[in-house]
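Give me the fold.
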Amino acid sequence: MKKVIAIANQKGGVGKTTTAVNLSACLARAGIRVLLIDFDPQGNATSGLGVQGLADEKDIYRVLVDAISLPDAIVETGYENLFLAPSTPQLTGAQVELAGRDEQHFVLRKKIADAAVDFPFILIDCPPSLTTLSVNALCAANSILIPLQCEYYSLEGLTELLKTVSLVRERLNPGLEIEGILLTMCDYRTNLSKQVISEVRRYFGKQVFEAVIPRAVSLAEAPSFGKPVIDYDIRSRGAEGYMLLAEEVLKRYSLELELGF
C-alpha cells in the first residue's frame, strides 16, 4: 500500500518545500523508492532537485488535465530511489480547469490510485495557501506533515490549518491523519524559539516530531545548487536534522532501515 504524505502549511516561508525535498532524499538514501509530487506552481521542489527544462514534456499539470498519465510524468532525479513529478507555472491554470469537473477535489487521488507505480512513499509538496490544489493534495493523502517555523505567528497559522484539516476529514477524506508537526528554522540562541518548541510540545505531545530542523546556512544554499542538503553538505546541522526526521518516519512504519550515511 502506498503511503501518501502531504507536506502542507497555509503559511509560506516555513520550510515546506525544504522539508519535502530533504525528507524525500533521506528516505531514498535509506533504500526506499520515493515519489515526490511537486504540487506548487512555483516549482521550487523541482528546481531544488536540479530538474528543469521539462515544461513541454512532463509535468503534474498535464496529469491533472488528462493529457498524460502520472507514470508518464515521472522523471528521474539523479538520486537513486528518488523520483519526481515536476511542476511548472502552468499548474496555476489547473485550479480554474478543475473547478468545473465532477469530484474536482479527488482528481489527484484518482491519478495516484490508478498509477501502476511501485512507491512505498509518495510525498506531495503543497502550495502555501488554501486552494483547489491544496484540497486535492489533502484528499489524496493518508496523512499531513506540518512544518512549523519556530516563531509566534506560526502558532496562529497552525490553529487555522488544523481547522482546515478537520473540515477536510469531516467532509472529504475521513482517513486523513496528522503525520506529525515538524519544528523548523529553530534558532536555539533565542528565547522565542525555545518558547515555541515548549508550547507546541505541551499542546500537541507525541504529534510533534522529536527531530527539530535548525536555521542553517546549508539548507538555504543547497537549493541554488539543485541538491538536497545531504548531497550538498552531509555533515551540516541541516542534513543531520533531516536524517533524524527520516529515521523517525521509518520507525513509525516499522521500517528499521539503516540510513546509509
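The domain at 3-249 is CATH 3.40.50.300 (Rossmann fold).
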